Amino acid sequence: MKIYDFTVKNTKGEEVSLSQFKGKVLLIVNTATGCGFTPQYEGLEKLYKDYHEKGLEILDFPCNQFGHQAPGTEQEIVSFCKLHYGVSFLQFAKVEVNGKNEIPLYTYLKSQKGGVMGSNIKWNFTKFLVDRQGNVVQRFAPTVTPEKIEGEILNLL
After folding, report:
1. Among 35, 70, 77, 153, which one carries the catalytic annotation?
2. What is the share, in percent, of the chain residues with pLDDT greater than 90?
């Protein structure tokens, strides 16, 4: 399996193939709108605006598994993110990233980069960086801000 073999659901419930991102650098993030890390949306949007034209895509997967910090519907989440952070990168349907209902994409990401604390995602705003060939090259803890990974992204662009 490669990352391009997966499909995910967009905010309208439609299937989206990740194969459409072949040749792009991907930053895949599980997010929440009511989390202490929520202000990271601002840094994610800045990275997107600065590097989208050079091949960066940010894939946002809201997740309500950690302290129920992503309440609301997909449309409410999208509206919140646009209003408060000007988010213009791709946002997808709410997902689970751990456990029996985790989406296959996250099972794959965790199998590629388990992280220093094991394979389970510990909290929202865990980030996975994928190179242009579809290899998961790095995993970042929620405490690592988007600004701190800019150099890693630049190396792949």
Report:
1. 35
2. 85
Closest by CA to 136, choosing from 154, 104, 114, is: 114
35 is an active site residue: yes
* DSSP-derived pairing of the beta strands 15-17 and 127-130: unpaired
Cα 52 to the center of its chain, rounded Å:
15
Fold of 35-156: Glutaredoxin (3.40.30)
**Cα–Cα dist 113/151, whole Å:** 19
Task: Extract the tokens encoding 30.
Answer: 């599980």
Cβ within 8 Å of residue 101, ≥6 positions away: none
- Is the predicted pLDDT of residue 114 greater than 90, yes or no? no
Boundaries of every domain in the chain: 35-156
Quick one: tokens of 134?
């579809």
pLDDT of residue 116: 54
Query: Confidence class of residue 71 from pLDDT cuts 50, 70 and 90?
Result: confident
